[in-house]
Structure formats: C-alpha cells, structure tokens
Design brief:
CATH superfamily of chain A: Hypothetical protein af1432
CATH topology of chain A: Hypothetical protein af1432
Structural class of chain B: mainly alpha
Bound molecules: fe (ii) ion
Largest sheet of chain A: none
Oligomer: heterodimer
Structural class of chain A: mainly alpha
Number of helices of chain A: 16
Number of strands of chain B: 2
Strand content of chain A: under 5%
CATH class of chain A: Mainly Alpha
Radius of gyration of chain A: 18 Å
Number of domains of chain A: 1
Largest interface: A-B, 26 and 24 residues
Strand content of chain B: under 5%
Order of helices and strands of chain A: HHHHHHHHHHHHHHHH
Number of domains of chain B: 2
Largest sheet of chain B: 2 strands, antiparallel
CATH architecture of chain A: Orthogonal Bundle
Radius of gyration of chain B: 18 Å
Strand order of the largest sheet of chain B: 1-2
Shape of chain A: globular
Order of helices and strands of chain B: EEHHHH
Shape of chain B: elongated
Chain lengths: 281, 102
C-alpha cells in the first residue's frame, strides 16, 4: 500500500461516521462576517444531543476551564470557534473510539489534559486549542483501525512481536505513519491548520511548517502521558523525544514537578469520563 | 480522611473547604447536595486492582526501555518515580532513600 492508495481510501471513507450535516452549515455561517457567537450557538443548540455532548466535553477536566460553561454560545466565546467546531466534527469519532478502543480513548483524554496544563504554563493564548489538538493527535490510529482493519491487526501484532513502536511498523507496511494519516483526514474535514499541523507532526514537531510550539507541546504531552502509563497508545513504549522541540518548550525541573502533580490529580477525575449521555425530557 | 481540595457542586458552589475532616455523615450530606468528586489527602485506600508502588515503579522503568540513553527522559522517569514515592510514603521516606543510595 502507498500514500496515494491511502489517500484514496480516506476520500471514500466507509466505516467511520460521516460528518454531521450541521458542520457544513456552520462553516458557511462562519464565512459570513456578521455572524455572532449567539447566532452560531442558537443553530447548534437546536440539536439537543449534540449540545449536551458539547457542554459535557467543554466542562470536563481535560479542558480544566475554571468556570462552568452552560450555553453553546458561551462556549464559543470562551473557547473559540476552532475548538467547538473540532469537537463537533470529532464527537462521533470519539464515540466509535470509546466503544472500540477505550485505551486509546483514555490516552487521548490524558494527552489533552497534559497539553492544557503545559499550554497554560507556557502562557499560550488559547490553551483549549492545544488541548483539542492533544485530544485528536492520534486520529490516524483510529483511521487505520477502522478503514484498514487487516493492516491494523498486522501492525499491532508485528509491533508486539518485535518490540517495536507502532509507528515504525506503520511506516514499513503503509509507507506512512498515523501522524500523516490523521493530518490528511483533519485537512479533508477543513479543520484549521493550528490543529492539522500538530496532529500531522506530533512525532516530529520541528518539521511542522507552522505552529511548531503547539506541535512541540502535543509531542511532549504524548510522551508524558505514555510515561505515566495512563491509557494505551498501542505499544507499551515511551516515544522518543525531539530535542529541538524540547528546547522550544524547555520546562524546568520544578515546572515538571508541578505538571506531574497536576496531571496525576486530573487523571483521577478523567477515569470516569465517558461520552455516553442520557438526554432528559 | 481530610479534604485536599474544596468540595464543590457541579455548579461551582463551595460547600466545604480544603482541610475539613471527613466522616460518613458529612460525605452523605455532600452527596445529597450534588457533590460528585471529593479529593482527599494522601492515598488512604487502594482501589481494587490497583498496583502496589513497587509494581508501578517496575512498569514505569520498562516503559522507558527504548529511551534509556536520553538524559531528559531519564530525568522525567526519576521525577515521576519520586512523585509516586512521596505520594505514598511521604517526603521523609524519599529523602532517606536518596541518602542511602548516595
Ligand atoms: Fe502518536
Ligand atoms: Fe499518542
């Protein structure tokens, strides 16, 4: 299999849930300059299930937003449209993931949490955006699993047998790693580049054409969450560190202690987080 | 057991401050008022299936098997290990341990 074939596969994706129709409507609305968060919020709020899912996500501990967010328009104002849109686009993917691969689901939530903590320490302008990038950084793994199930099994088996990173075997068998695959799909979904690049380059953040700092934070958060042993990223190994990326975010020993303590505490709360929502009324 | 963080309702209302001594009656009361999570100091109980400290440290070490030569990641491994030791046994235990191994 090669890149072109995979790209083709992504174009007529079958088993992954399709984008909710509301997404294209929202995209159109955002293109309109006079649009307000309140108007956008109203459109989303017509969908009760989507609204309760969204509010559950934005209020969960992986965003760590200090105050409670109770309406969609509030969420748009506080977290930005990029974040809300990404959550809408990926919510169905996460349902699939929660059902088929809880380990990867937990790994993603944990990585998002770490991203938020580090982004705040680094005083990044919109830390929730970095959390969101962390949440979907392994999107490519879900794609391989659902679109190329036989390849997926073969990759997992070989990685386990030879004690390799999943990524190494992906490259060998598909000619491309899950980072790039995730990036392709994110681009196809028109997610903003601030999110596409960090997904695509989370294993080699310094190659990212832009948003290297966000990519570096996702890169290190992925390492950190694997180091703590929370969730399951497919193989049991802590990924290698890109030292230029590390130089970019350079955290001191005492900052690292702070991050580990805060993360460990938040992971306890995350353990009961699921997307299953009972809609009342 | 002592509260490590304020007990808050999902709406953000603080019902009890950090440092409050907990008892069964109080926990039931907080639950009735909608509090879903309480953080307590230390690790008073081990959840069923939770691994012992030495098992966790051993697994931590094996996860780092492929990156042993990286000094930054080695430091990370130590920081995580130390955090777990202090959390379970206290700072003094770690200090003693460090002295002994020096
Ligand atoms: Fe990855
Ligand atoms: Fe990952």
């Amino acid at each position: 299999m090669d890149k072109a074939e995979i790209k083709k596969k992504l174009n007529d994706i079958e088993s992954l849930p399709t984008l909710p129709p509301i997404v294209s409507k929202l995209n159109e609305m955002v293109a309109d300059e006079d649009i307000t968060a309140v108007k956008l919020g109203k459109v989303i709020e017509k969908d009760q299930v989507l609204t309760s899912k969204l509010l559950k996500m934005v209020n969960s501990s992986f965003f760590g937003f200090p105050q409670r967010i109770s309406t969609v328009s509030n969420a748009i104002v506080l977290l930005g449209f990029n974040v809300i849109k990404t959550l809408i686009v990926t919510s169905s993917i996460f349902e699939v993931m929660q059902a088929s691969d809880v380990g990867l689901f937990e790994h993603s939530l944990g990585c998002a949490t770490a991203c938020g903590i580090i982004a705040r320490i680094r005083e990044i302008k919109n830390p929730e955006e970095v959390s969101t990038a962390g949440l979907i950084h392994d999107l490519g793994k879900i794609v391989i699993r659902s679109e190329l199930p036989e390849e997926y099994v073969a990759i997992v088996e070989k990685a386990r047998e030879k004690g390799l990173y999943m990524r190494e075997v992906e490259k060998e068998r598909l000619g491309i790693g899950h980072g790039e695959i995730g990036g392709m799909l994110a681009r196809q979904w028109n997610l903003p580049e601030r999110l596409v690049f960090p997904i695509e380059y989370h294993h080699r953040p310094e190659v990212a054409p832009e948003f290297k700092e966000i990519a570096a934070i996702v890169h290190f958060s992925d390492i950190l969450i694997r180091a703590l042993g929370f969730g399951d990223g497919g193989d049991p190994w802590v990924p290698g560190l890109d030292h230029s990326a590390w130089a970019r975010i350079k955290l001191t020993r005492s900052q690292m202690r702070e991050i580990i303590a805060e993360l460990d505490e938040k992971l306890v709360e995350l353990q009961d987080f699921t997307l299953d929502i009972k809609v009342e009324g | 057991m002592v509260l490590a963080k304020d007990a808050v309702t999902p709406e953000g209302q603080v019902l009890c401050g950090a440092g409050t001594e907990l008892n069964e009656e109080l926990i039931v009361k907080l639950r009735k008022q909608g509090v879903l999570v309480l953080s307590v100091k230390g690790r008073p109980v081990r959840a069923p299936g939770e691994k012992s400290l030495s098992e966790r440290l051993k697994e931590l070490d094996s996860r780092f098997a492929k990156v042993r030569r990286d000094p930054v990641l080695r430091a990370l491994q130590h920081l995580i290990g130390e955090y777990w030791v202090v959390e379970e046994k206290g700072q003094e235990f770690l200090d003693k341990l460090k002295k002994e191994t020096r």
